[in-house]
Design a protein that fits this description.
Chain B: Keywords: ATP-binding, Nucleotide-binding, Transport. The complex is a heterodimer. Chain A is mainly alpha-helical. In chain A, 85% of the residues lie in helices and 0% in strands. The radius of gyration of chain A is 22 Å and the shape is globular. Chain B has a single domain, classed as P-loop containing nucleotide triphosphate hydrolases (Rossmann fold). Chain B is built from seven helices and ten strands. The N and C termini of chain B lie far apart (41 Å). The chains are: A mainly alpha, B alpha/beta.
Chain lengths: 245, 242
């Protein structure tokens, strides 16, 4: 209910601002909605959204799985941590734009280059978060598993993974928002489709309604994924914690 | 089956760079069916000794002979339950082969039936301790290690749990190592008592209790305690004299 109210407030502010600034700079909500409907009925909206979502899904999965594995390794093995740390610092501080441009130069304007570039941008933060999570693992529970001779996989699944779940959820949350942002840049610079590409076209034509139509649809999709996927996962991971009164 | 402990020393390197001797040479053996009790002041190195015996700490001088296939059941000082798994799951994860009937019986003896589906965070310390006991017994251990299982429980509950431990130990052949600083627990549960010195720990006295546990009444327990008090008093005068 409160969420709905806040959404209505957002629309109201937008509409008032549109009236004040004028339709060329900020089109009113109905004008944007009209473009949305037109793009949706032609199918272009879904095509571009689908392309972007596919890239997000691939890059996100790649970065999360690789980043989690490396982070876990670095948290557990001191040598891996020492060896990996300088690389990690370099990757963490490398601007997204540099990675994307270099990827396109080296691998050509290809799908693989785009996805790799997006994944590389997300990778270091996943590593850092999971490394922290691994360092915070409760040693006494490891000892318990070892004394009771739990097989490795069972211990990992029931002792380690639940402790890492909040870190994985946090990394997924922050990583997803990072990937949402970077995917558009990658598309703008070197893909012939996707929301980022469309925004680039709209920018060149100064077509604000089209720009807003694509960005807002994209934002809506992000919101839906956050509430339907990420938040339930977080809640599930924290289900065992005694609820705060 | 036999557990032989022969630790010749254990030192611990502190962050400041100094070395501290935690354990002096300690040597003892335990047979199947026996309850050995390690009694010593807190901080004397009992937990370190247990970690070595359990194979969690390999950085020591000496040798532990433990049947390699021996199943270990352990009750840690803190319950060490998985907070994200229910009581029943906690037990079953440690003892995947436990039969339903056996588990039901354990839960009945330890009065945990109503708590099967609770999470450890919802349990009192006493209940959590009982879950840890259930877990240790569910694995049908060959070696049972109890690290201060009754500490910080009120007397009535500690007494009841002690009786339950005695019942469970009697129900199957298992060698038990109990660590405690309570002479009362030691005398009621133990077959052989090992008295440890302050850090670095060594065994200052070893005392077998001849009367079988089942026939130890209050009178016998009081008598054992009195003779122990006399002995330790004797040791002290001896030490003071030298």
């Amino acid at each position: 209910m409160l969420r709905l109210l806040s959404f209505v407030l957002f629309l109201a502010i937008w509409w008032i601002a549109a009236l004040l600034v004028g339709g060329a700079k900020l089109p009113s909500p109905p004008a944007v909605l009209q473009v949305m409907i037109a793009e949706a009925s032609s199918g272009a909206l879904f095509l571009h959204l689908g392309a972007t979502l596919a890239r997000v899904a691939l890059a996100f999965t790649l970065a999360m799985s690789l980043g989690s594995a490396i982070g876990y390794l670095m948290g557990r093995v001191k040598l891996a941590d020492r060896l990996g740390d300088p690389w990690l610092i370099l990757l963490l501080n490398l601007p997204a734009l540099v990675v994307i441009v270099l990827a396109y130069i080296w691998a050509g304007l290809t799908e693989a280059a785009a996805i790799a570039a997006i994944a590389i941008n997300k990778l270091p933060t996943a590593i850092v978060t999971l490394r922290e999570g691994t360092r915070a693992l409760d040693r006494s529970l490891d000892e318990m598993a070892s004394v009771f001779a739990m097989p490795r996989w069972r211990a990992f699944r029931h002792v380690v993974l639940p402790q890492l779940a909040p870190y994985i959820a946090a990394s997924a949350r922050s990583g997803l928002s990072l990937v949402w942002k970077i995917v558009l840049v990658a598309e703008l610079l070197g893909r012939p489709n996707g929301v980022g590409f469309e925004i680039g076209v709209a920018f060149q034509l100064f077509d604000t309604p089209r720009l807003l139509a694509y960005s807002l649809t994209f934002a809506a999709v992000v919101l839906v994924i956050e509430t339907l996927l990420v938040q339930p996962f977080e809640a599930r991971a924290n289900r065992w914690r005694p609820r705060a009164a | 089956m036999r557990l032989e402990v022969d630790i010749t020393g254990k030192t611990f390197r502190s962050a400041a760079g100094g070395t501290h001797e935690v354990l002096a040479p300690v040597k003892f053996a335990l047979q199947s069916g026996e309850v050995g009790v390690l009694i010593g002041p807190s901080g004397c190195g009992k937990s370190t000794m247990l970690r070595i015996i359990l194979g969690l700490d390999h950085d020591f001088a000496g040798h532990i002979a433990r049947p390699p296939e021996a199943r270990i059941g352990m009750v840690f000082q803190e319950p060490r339950l998985l907070p994200w798994r229910s009581v029943e799951q906690n037990v079953r994860l440690a003892a995947p082969d436990v039969a339903d009937a056996k588990l039901a019986e354990l839960f009945r003896i330890l009065e945990l039936e109503a708590h099967r589906d609770h999470y450890p965070g919802e349990l009192s310390l006493g209940l959590a301790r009982r879950v840890a006991l259930a877990r240790a017994f569910a694995v049908e251990p060959d070696i049972l290690v109890l690290d201060e299982p009754l500490a910080s429980l009120d007397d009535a509950l500690a007494g009841r749990l002690r009786d339950e431990i005695a019942t469970l130990v009697a129900s199957r052949p298992v060698m038990t190592l109990l660590v405690t600083h309570s002479l009362d627990d030691a005398v009621r549960l133990g077959d052989r008592l090992f008295f440890l010195s302050p850090r670095p720990a060594r065994i200052v006295a070893e005392m077998p209790i001849g009367i079988p546990r089942a026939t130890r009444g209050e009178a016998e327990i009081a008598a054992i305690k009195a003779s122990l008090a006399q002995r330790t008093q004797g040791d002290r005068t001896e030490r003071d004299a030298s």
